[in-house]
Amino acid sequence: MVVMKMKFPFQKRVKLAQGLWFLSWCATVAGAITFTLGCILKTELRRRAEVMDNSDVHVVPNTLMIVGLASLGINIFASKICQDALDAERFPRWKNMLKPYFAVSCFFTVLMLLAVIMSCAMKGSLESSLKVGLKNGIRFYKDTDTPGRCFQKQNIDRLQMEFQCCGNNDFRDWFEVQWISNRYLDFSSKEVKDRIKSNVDGRYLLDGVPFSCCNPSSPRPCIQYQLTNNSAHFNYEYQTEELNLYLRGCREALVSYFMGLMNTIGAGVLSVFLLQGSVLVSLRFLQTAMEAVAGNENTEIETEGYLLEKSVKDTVMEFIEPVMQFFLFKNQVGEGSSEAQADP
Amino acid sequence: MPFMPVKFNLQKRVKLAQGLWMIYWLSVIVGILIFSLGLFFKVELRKRSEMMDNNESHLVPNLLILVGLLAGGVSAFGGKVCHDSLDPVKFAKWKPMLKPYLLLCCGFNVLMLFTALLCFLMQFAVYLTLAEGLKNSIKFYKDTDTPGRCFMKRTLDMTQIEFRCCGNNNFRDWFEVQWISNRYLDMSNDLVKDRVLSNVEGKYLMDSVPFSCCNPGSPRPCIQHHLTNNTAHYDYDHRIEELNIWSRGCREALFAYFSSMMNSIGASSSSPSCWR
């Protein structure tokens, strides 16, 4: 049972070949764009790698880069094939390569679609990675003398200023960690000793935030310390104060930034996928139409083109059978040799 | 007596016309480039116009935009003439216009060189405007309730954060102005009253800077207040402390930014006029 049979008179074949040539060059450019988009996404993710706990989300840009490069190759090949397609002498040399070529192209096109789906589905993984990464970042903020964590403070400060956010969920996360290093605390002072003793773990906790949480849009100079003490500042009420600090948490800010980026890239790659798919379908029609011409003296006869010779199920079985046989053969050899050893 | 006569056979004429046609179309692209550089410069000046008291001169970017448009137009016309030059019928209709066109081209080249020269010379004016504008910005930092100056605080904070600078010459400029509005000062407090009375003009001055002067690269949490008082902070010496706040003044930072932009624009607009 042939899938999608279509008649192709000579003129239609010529038009198909010309259109396909143009389409394949467009698809080549689109493949290059996909690769670039993958690189951009990877660069952005690497820039914020210090506040991410794991790199699971990197599978999206890696896949995009692989698919972009593969798409470049596939489409350059496609343009070469359709250039030779209308020439009855040159076309037969492509004959043997076309079946594996189509298999590989279909695989990479499906991978492109998977990349698009993954870019939308990775939100949960990204969020949990950021949750742990930011928690550690805030915990190690004060360790500017520990090798490997020297720049944690600078990174968190720059992150908070750039994304206009404070803390993990909100600014209260800073109340739960000691973010001032012991090197800058006067242990002979009564106030410091009281505060440390009042805490089970012996940490110096205070209701203050770093300067990078300050919102420049506030009409009054920034209030960083004694945030929950209304009497410490003139005309200040922390329950109604909104503009003093950034209210948004950095996790929310980063997730919305990266999801926005990935959704935009996903939309672009989806259109590339559709373009690539149409190239492959047109090429298959051209190939089958030209194969019917082969051997005929008159190259201008009308031929039929189709997508698949047998039904979808049969074609899939046809591809999988050699692979299955290879594995089964290996098993049979293993069984045969173990039987031979068992017999004395 | 003709000046610089040169013999031209047909082949040489054809090559000359083709070469000129290419050069004219390249000039059109360069004209578009100069136009976009002028536009970019204008946008940057408008972005920072609050720091310059809205007094900055837009002469240079306006001239660049004009020159870019003219370059595009003149070169496109020249290209069309070159294209028609080897066909005697088409060329005849351009003949009367050529002399005034060549004069216009010479004048235009002079204008382009003048614009490039201005790019280098106007930097001094930008420096003076910045000095005056920043002084006023710091003065009006606290006036977040005065119409027309509501956003001065936000703009100055964002500028100090973006350009990594503090104050006009350096951070001590903040010690000389009252940058905390009276609305947030408790006038019934003795400390506040003392400070206001100790000053001739009744201003609340202190040795502190706004949070936007803080350097994120400092290993310790930012010290904003009591900067000159070593005993107010543990293990702190204001004479040797370097990383706490930005040590560069904003005038120097902004000037370096604008002067590098003007230098590169001047250099890139003087080279095309040479090969025209």
Shape of chain B: elongated
Low-confidence sequence ranges of chain A: none
Q: Could you give the order of strands across the largest sheet of chain A? A: 1-2
Structural class of chain B: mainly alpha
- Supply Rg of chain A: 32 Å
Proportion of helical residues of chain B = 55-70%
* Tally of distinct domains of chain B: 2
Looking at how many chains there are and whether they match, the oligomeric state comes to: heterodimer
Q: Mind sketching the topology for me?
A:
The complex is a heterodimer of chains A (about 350) and B (about 280).
Chain A: E1 6-8, H1 10-47, H2 59-85, H3 95-121, H4 123-139, H5 152-163, H6 190-197, H7 250-293, E2 303-305, H8 312-342
Antiparallel strand pairs in A: 1-2
Chain B: H1 10-47, H2 59-85, H3 88-121, H4 123-139, H5 152-163, H6 190-197, H7 250-275
Task: Describe the model.
- Chain A is built from 8 helices and 2 strands, in the order βαααααααβα.
- Chain A has 344 residues and is mainly α.
- A two-stranded antiparallel ribbon of chain A has the order 1-2.
- In chain A, α1 packs antiparallel against α2 and α2 packs parallel to α7 (250-293).
- The longest helix of chain A has 44 residues, at 250-293.
- Chain A starts with 5 loop residues before the first strand and ends with a helix.
- Chain B has 276 residues and is mainly α.
- The model of chain B has no long low-confidence stretch (mean pLDDT 89).
- Classes of the chains: A mainly alpha (344), B mainly alpha (276).
- The interface between A and B is medium-sized, with 30 and 30 residues.
- Chain A: One of its GO terms (biological process) is visual perception.
- Chain A: Keywords: Membrane, Transmembrane, Transmembrane helix.
- Chain A: This is Peripherin-2.
